[in-house]
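Subgroup meeting minutes
Present: P.N., E.W., G.H.
Scribe: E.W.

1. P.N. recapped why we're keeping a running log of single-chain structure predictions: easier to compare across weeks, and new members can see raw inputs and outputs side by side.
2. G.H. added today's entry (228 aa).
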Amino acid sequence: AAILLKLGGYGLIRISPMLNPHPPNLMFPIMILALWGILMTSSICLRQTDLKALIAYSSVSHMGLVTAAIIVQTPWGLTGAMILMIAHGLTSSALFALANTNYERTHTRTLLLVRGLQLAFPLMSTWWLLTNLTNMAMPPTINLLGELFIITTLFNWSTPTIIITGIGTLITATYSLYMFLMTQRGSISTQFRLLAPTHTREHLTLTLHLLPLGLLIMKPAIISGLFT
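Output recorded in log:
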């Protein structure tokens, strides 16, 4: 999710200029699929019972925005796509790392079974909160900048797209909060009373994911100057 999806986005960025200006019979079907995919995959996330499946589907939802922005072929769209791909690469990787720390201790990925871990791992719960806030593009993260660029690009291309992107953003916030509440809040199961403590390497891994996201917002030109 962090690397292979970005290779697909890179391929679209390289191939799309060769088709510019895009023929309508090629552009509109891809745009419709990308926008409809945002809503469908976001909705699927709300029904997931497997933690890793939820994170994987959320990655597909974000890449729908990236695909739509690249197809429009404007400087703002390409810049937003680049920013969101880099931001989501770090965020998605951090979420999978967090899911793995849970799985190593509970040996299950079922959301209904893994609850109340905030009581056992308060510091890891903080990482969960920060990563989920980043995933839903809360300010002042670089994810918000990328989504604003893309939403503005799509709105300028076609006004009704604001409805789809707005609903997609709302559902993204919903399943991100759902993921946090299902894994961290509530009463912990009696079968998980004796859990191995978290390790420094795990906290270091998450720091190396989230620290760049916090620092890039101070100078976003590092990753957005390619197309501006």
